[in-house]
Amino acid sequence: MNRKSGGFRSGVLRLSRFASTLLAFTAISMAMQSARAETTVEPKRQAFQTRDGVILVGDVYAQGTKAPTVILWHQLGRTRADLQWFIPLLLGKGFSVVNMDLRGHGESVNTIKNTKIDYKTFTGADWLKLPEDVPLIVQDLKPMRHISGSLVGIVGCSIGANMAAMDESDPNVKAVVMLSPGYDYHGLKPEPQLRKSTKPIFMVAAKPDEFSYDAIQRWANKKPNLNAAVVSQSAHGDDLLKNERVTDQVVDFLVNNLHK
Asked: What's the pTM value of the predicted model, to 2 decimals?
């Protein structure tokens, strides 16, 4: 009798947890569907040539020159497809979006000399070229029609966060979101730029992710423009956006700093 009763209670608990997870997933799914329904913007595949002849590839969702632009940079070993689901939420808030493949990733593997590059074979010098790609994309947006290159926010994940923060000098970049940044990703060390930066920067890390958590604890709140959020569950990079609270905070940060 006790065993059966205990088994029944255990089963109820498992069902309850499953139902809670299903409800949370359904809520996020409905929000995404609602955003898609409200905003239909067809992406344009766009190529950008770097100074050293690499052809970077991304998708451009243009909503006019008065709409602020958000540039997305994924994390190491991934592609721009990882952030595809996040784009309708940004479009629904009135942003244009540029979703990029990092050099050596996804479609950003070709050069003008018909050779290929792969991040798995990058040297230290190759990694240091990543931050140079950030202002290149911003500058190349300016002559384009129907998109702003002068009111820009950046969302970077992991190594993409570090490279985004290292572009301190571009006055067109008004706000930066750093998801799981670190002291040093393959030689990309954003601390010197963060120390002198005056633009709004929002950092997020998971507490179990000690490398990123320690970094934002060191940087956050040292200056009025540096703010941070910490989540308790294990997540890294764009996986942090699967936390609805984080997604809301990121979107609100971009709205507050770009829609002025």
From this structure: 0.86
Q: What's residue 47's pLDDT?
A: 98
pLDDT confidence of residue 39: 62
3 state SS for the chain: CHHHHHHHHHHHHHHHHHHHHHHHHHHHHHHHHHHHHHCCCCCEEEEEECCCCEEEEEEEECCCCCCCEEEEECCCCCCHHHHHHHHHHHHHCCCEEEEECCCCCCCCCEECCCCECCHHHCCHHHHCCHHHHHHHHHHHHCCCCCCCCCCEEEEEECHHHHHHHCCCCCCCEEEEEEECCCCCECCECCHHHHHHCCCCEEEEEECCCHHHHHHHHHHCCCCCCEEEEEECCCCCHHHHHHCHHHHHHHHHHHHHHHCC
* Percentage above 70 pLDDT, the chain: 85
